[in-house]
Amino acid sequence: MHPALNIIIKAARRASQIINRAALDLEHLQITTKRQSDFVTEVDKAAEAAIIDILREAYPEYGILAEESGLTAGQGGGSEYQWIIDPLDGTTNFIHGFPQYAISIALAYRGQVTQAVVYDPVRNEMFTASKGGGAFLNDRRIRVSKCLKLEQALLGTGFPYRMYDHIDAYLRIFKELAQKTAGMRRPGAAALDLAYVACGRFDGFWEFGLSPWDMAGGALLIAEAGGLVSDLAGNETYLQSGNLVAGTPKVFAQLLQVIDSHRTPGLEA
């Protein structure tokens, strides 16, 4: 296992202790609204601080992009490595006691993700991946499903909840896919949804308006598990655009075709 991946796992487990302890006393959580339907709690902040402390101790020169604290440079400011951190993906689920949320930590080198962890503290499921080294769930090798046809596919998605500029296009896509697939699910934690594609629980996934920390770890998991990930035009700029399509190779191609047929000029790739 890559040394950096060991450090990420250590950080994820430390954050999970904070999250699991807080989950036992949700009534006393301090919750702040960042914007409509976008919440942050003291748990998000404490988990992120714990993650950063562990990562900084091991690699002080690496930069950081984190959901709550934003972009910070490492010591010396010249490193081409960057941690991408979501301390609690699925905060809305968490504060409602809905047990679908995760910790996502990735390491990127020159903008390319090379190490990733998505950890589900509720189920104690640790998804890990190293670029070129495969994807794993609790040390067991995982692969995307063998699904070949969209009509047999179970898809994950995320409903628009912050920006509604493209909700009409989204609803048109949703309507067509509802008629052409075996079903769609919206659990509410994109990092975990992507991990589910990697291990075959979902056959595909699509969502608009994501942030890099929602996608970085899960995208590497899928790629290392034999799946495909792209933006809405089939390119690799999803971390920049925030729009992502993923799945088994065959399902991905069919899903991308449906989405592309409903794209409007304002909906960038």
Characterization of the model:
The model has no long low-confidence stretch (mean pLDDT 92). It is globular and about 50 Å long. It has helices spanning 3-23, 42-58, 91-95, 167-180, 190-198, 212-224, 238-241, 249-261, and strands spanning 31-35, 38-41, 63-66, 70-72, 81-89, 102-109, 112-120, 125-130, 134-137, 140-141, 154-157, 183-185, 204-207, 228-230, 244-247. Helices cover 36% and strands 27% of the residues. Strand 3 and strand 4 (70-72) form a beta hairpin. An 8-stranded mixed β-sheet has the order 4-3-5-6-7-8-9-10, sandwiched between helices. A 5-stranded mixed β-sheet has the order 12-11-13-15-14, sandwiched between helices. Helix 1 (3-23) packs antiparallel against helix 2 (42-58) and helix 5 (190-198) runs parallel beside helix 6. With 269 residues, it is of the alpha+beta class.
Distance between the termini: 35 Å
Radius of gyration: 18 Å
| Outline type | globular
| Class from secondary-structure proportions | alpha+beta
Strand content: 25-35%
The count of strands amounts to 15
Query: Reading side by side through the largest sheet, how are the strands ordered?
Result: 4-3-5-6-7-8-9-10
Order of helices and strands: HEEHEEEHEEEEEEHEHEHEHEH
Query: How many helical stretches?
Result: 8
Helix content: 25-40%
| Low-pLDDT sequence parts | none
Main sheet: strands, sense, barrel? 8 strands, mixed
Mean pLDDT, nearest integer? Answer: 92
